[in-house]
Amino acid sequence: MILPIVAYGATVLRKVCKPIEAKYEGLATLIEDMWETMYESNGVGLAAPQINRDIRLFVMDSAQIFANSEPEDEAYSDAPGIKRVFINPQIIETGGKDWIYNEGCLSIPKIREDVSRPEWVTLSYLDEQFKSHTETFHGITARIIMHEYDHIEGKLFIDYIKPLKKKMLQGKLNDISKGKMRVDYKMTLGK
């Protein structure tokens, strides 16, 4: 089922999310719905707060970036990308050279800004079978993971931009929070 994406301004997007247990009711269905919602919205990642759930869960698919890239596109070290579910993730370490990429977010439509993030991230997490993993991710995959991880920590990509630039975007952000932004996917103002 395609779920509505929560718009900027909803309090759930600013909450530090709670861990979940294997017995979390309807988890398999929720994960399936998150995949369907993410793809329908043309996203590469989706965190639970974006669908109005304050739990430590996100899905991401960097493989589609590589599948849809042109030969002249910048080559990333993590090709061909991955498709993965992350439950109760915890960042252990980040490192490498910081690099800038123009990020966007389904909860903040029609706004994209350059964000600097580290080259790699190591995190521990559970997969959808609640099997434990500790892994290091690089390139665009690491960036998507850090972006989605921020969501479960109550942070948004616009928190990384300079105050003056954010002030210039305030009108658009206000429109999004009031539901005055037209998008081609389901959105809700959330709670």
What key attributes describe this structure?
191 residues, alpha+beta, Peptide Deformylase, five-stranded antiparallel β-sheet, two-stranded parallel sheet
Question: Secondary-structure map with pairings?
Answer:
Elements: E1 5-6, H1 27-40, E2 45-47, E3 57-61, H2 63-67, E4 83-95, E5 99-105, E6 108-117, E7 120-126, E8 132-138, H3 139-152, H4 163-177, E9 187-188
Parallel strand pairs: 1-9
Antiparallel strand pairs: 2-3, 3-4, 4-7, 5-6, 7-8
Describe the structure.
The protein has 191 residues and is of the alpha+beta class. The chain has one domain: Peptide deformylase (Peptide Deformylase). The protein contains four helices and nine strands; from the N terminus they run βαββαβββββααβ. Strands 2-3-4-7-8 form a five-stranded antiparallel beta sheet, sandwiched between helices. A two-stranded parallel ribbon has the order 1-9. Strand 7 and strand 8 form a beta hairpin. The two termini are 20 Å apart.
